[in-house]
Amino acid sequence: MQEIKDMICPFCGCLCDDITLEIEAGKIVSTDNCCTIGNAKFLGKNRLKNPIKKIDGTWTDITYEEAVDTAVEMLLDADRPLLFGWSGTHGEAQCVGVHMNEILGGVIDNTTSVCHGPSILAIQEVGHPGCTLGQVKNRADLIIYWGCNPIEAHPRHMSRYTTYADGYFLDNAFRNRKVIVVDVRETETAKVADEFIRIKPGGDYAVLSSLRAILRGKSDMIPDSVAGVSKTQLMQVADMCKTCSFGALFFGVGLTMAKGKYKNVRNAIEFVDDLNRHTKFTLTPMRGHWNVYGANEVMAWMTGYPYAVDFCRGVAFYNPGETTAIDILARKECDACMIVASDPAAHFPRACVEQLRDIPLVVIDPFETMTTTIADLQIPVAVTGIDAEGTAYRMDGIPIKVKKAMDSDYPSDTEILTRIYNKMLEVKGL
Amino acid sequence: MKFILNTGRTIRQGKFTENKLGQGYAEETSRCYIHPLDLLELGIEEGENIMVTNVTGEVVLVALADEGLPKGMVFVPYGIHCNSVISPCTHGTGMPDYKIHEVEIAPTSEDRKTPTELLEQLGGVRYAGN
Description:
The complex is a heterodimer.
Chain A: E1 2-7, E2 19-24, E3 27-32, H1 36-42, E4 52-55, E5 58-61, H2 64-76, E6 81-85, H3 91-104, E7 107-110, H4 117-126, H5 133-139, E8 142-146, H6 150-153, H7 157-161, H8 173-176, E9 178-183, H9 188-191, E10 195-198, H10 204-215, E11 225-226, E12 229-230, H11 231-243, E13 246-251, H12 253-256, H13 262-275, E14 280-285, H14 292-303, E15 309-310, E16 317-318, H15 325-330, E17 336-340, H16 344-347, H17 350-358, E18 361-364, H18 370-374, E19 377-379, E20 390-393, E21 399-402, H19 413-428
Parallel strand pairs in A: 6-7, 6-17, 8-9, 8-13, 9-10, 13-14, 17-18, 18-19
Antiparallel strand pairs in A: 1-2, 2-3, 4-5, 4-19, 7-15, 11-12, 15-16, 20-21
Helix pairs in contact in A: 2-19, 3-14, 3-19, 4-13, 10-11, 10-13
Chain B: E1 2-8, H1 11-15, H2 23-29, E2 31-34, H3 36-42, E3 49-53, E4 58-65, E5 73-77, E6 101-107, H4 115-121
Parallel strand pairs in B: 1-5, 2-4
Antiparallel strand pairs in B: 1-6, 2-5, 3-4, 3-6
């Protein structure tokens, strides 16, 4: 039995870096410090053993060489290819994806477009008053979770960085750090909050505007109730925010997927801006996929845009709502697709899944996923954090080296994408 | 009865993300949480099946009580089931309205489908080699 300490969990944007793995006969047999989800990820079984290709409606085992040739043929034959996913792989593989998209003249989009895409639109408008999670842990005496449910989606966020964490500059952090939860339903996170604000669906923008009005001394303009929240509670919360020493607002897709979308996030950022006239306050999106932040970083530094990048003009073009995966699929615009480390058949609206079914579809993923069933080709790869390594960005923008625990015969995402890319260059005579 | 559909992550849904074609994921993502008083108004008991419909599509889910929800809202964990009734319209933002969709809910005697069955309806084929 081999024990490996300080491994990185490749599941959510927390990128927990204190994981212990026990390895026996080339397999991970147990984990320590993981949450339920991370534990399941490390102990995942039933990886595909070899590439598979659908021929006349039946899956057939093929070699990696055949798989690379087929993928190249499918993507080069397309006029409007879409390369989607990327948030579940390391930065080095994302770099290859961007290069590949440039020679294909296609669209490369990551899962940001269906999680915090609207947050990025808001940040592009008014900026991002962020900080590292270490600052929050050690300094913040007030935490707001708005439209997110970390107990279910980021299970160790509260124990590592907020509610249950010690703070270097805080006395008795557990008792003195206050937590406010804002949501449309009473989640598990709301149940442990000091203050729960229940908003009517679609009421986030109005509540944020009301809090901003109170901060600016215009409380006389606020009606007795705003989107189901009493004026008394709004006044109390505004006072808690103003009088704290260091506040941190974390928000989730409750703001980005509801009515108002990026306008909600813009209002949240401006609320934090207003609070900084009274105290120190920061804002951080609760990023879902473990390296979705990295996908934004890589695409932004290589193309100028963080997601939904269209190269059909020969130069990078970005217009969320037009060049985002959901919209391209809903318009039945793309004629071939490669999915890397993502499962859109599970998470996209049915109309988009139907379009994916109708076009040549390549999947690069270690496991049989829902998208596998409607694909034409799948190439299994190593899992970053288990038998592959690379760079990932935590939800606060900190780059972290994700180590591997063992070697395997599977190629990494970077290796297989590089093989596909090199073959494309060869076929195109570049 | 009309409801607002809210979809989101649950820890059990997250736990099965590497085995989405398995029974655990199928069970979790075909759940629909409803306020107990809404269950009463619908005239169904917890554990009975419901048909969720709108202009986009329809899906059969099992109803479970959740007092944390406001009346008039239902919650379904992320997955292929709820996406049967999510419109691909993004209002020019790239993001569908995953958190706020109007749906009609009624009791049904139909059975829930597994993700594999829903995908087979779409023409999907499972790989038998593993």
